[in-house]
Fold this protein.
Amino acid sequence: MSDPIVTDARIRHGRWEATVVLPDGAGDGIEILHEGRALAGVEVAPDPVAPGRSRLAVAIPAELLSDGVQTFLVRLAGAPDAFARFSIVTGVPVEDDLRAEIDLLRAELDLLKRAFRQHLVRQGG
């Protein structure tokens, strides 16, 4: 059995939606897990625009959202591995912190490059 192929995944209006190509007979056996528990209301329907593809959707329960990163795994029922995943970040804007850290690392790398070049010039000349 081949792995499902997921495209056009997005979160919209509190729902995760994706287009998926499923192995034969897998449409009824999709699970979306959060912290090991399956979410209720997973919808799988044929995609009217793209024959051979299905639309996969699930409402994201508000009670699962809290500060930090919440990761959801999408898998065939009973399969050990997820074939897709999505994450939601809430609370303190982590993105700004990461950008600040990257900027700091870049600045430090520039200092190291300059010092290394000066060292090479001194050693070579």
Q: What stands out?
A: The helical segments are 94-124. The radius of gyration is 22 Å. DSSP finds one helix and eight strands in the chain.
